[in-house]
Specification:
single chain; alpha+beta; 4-stranded antiparallel sheet; 4-stranded mixed sheet; 8 strands; 17% helix; 33% strand
């Protein structure tokens, strides 16, 4: 037995008469698109550059002063736009040398340092990755002196 609802016998007949799918079909399509979009893994286009390693490490307490600061990132860096400075405890820059890309790794920048006295230092950096994302941050490390080691 068929039921008549507003002149249409059933859904298939109604769709064929109106030329448009029902709300249920539309909802199923939206759900399918959403499931597909969530199931696709994120690509590097959605990721941002980030610091993955620092030498000297963040918050390090060193008995011997470092001769350089080296930072590693998860993406290649635009060397011409890299900024890396070492600040003393009074926030004064220790060196005027510009950092360079490491010759063995395009994801790493290096800043040579002068002889450092015991004290607290801040590494401040700003780099532009090749995909256009800017990474900017800072961290501290300490060089112990003879009096500070006790």
């Amino acid at each position: 037995m068929q039921y008549v609802f507003f002149g249409y016998h059933n859904r298939a007949h109604r769709e064929s008469m109106t030329g448009s799918p029902s709300r249920g079909t539309f909802a199923r399509v939206i759900l399918l698109v959403a499931v597909f979009a969530l199931g696709v893994p994120a690509t590097s286009a959605f990721a941002h550059s980030m610091l993955v390693k620092a030498e000297p490490p963040r918050r390090a307490v060193l008995t011997k002063p470092p001769t350089q600061v080296r930072l590693w990132f998860n993406e290649k860096i635009e060397g011409d736009y890299a900024s890396l400075v070492l600040l003393d405890a009074k926030q004064r820059s220790i060196t005027d040398v510009k950092p360079t890309l490491a010759p063995d790794d395009q994801k790493s920048i290096v800043l040579p340092l002068p002889e450092l006295a015991p004290g607290k230092y801040s590494v401040k950096f700003r780099v532009l990755s090749v995909d256009g994302h800017v990474v900017e941050s800072s961290f501290d490390f300490t060089v112990k002196g003879v009096a500070q080691q006790k």
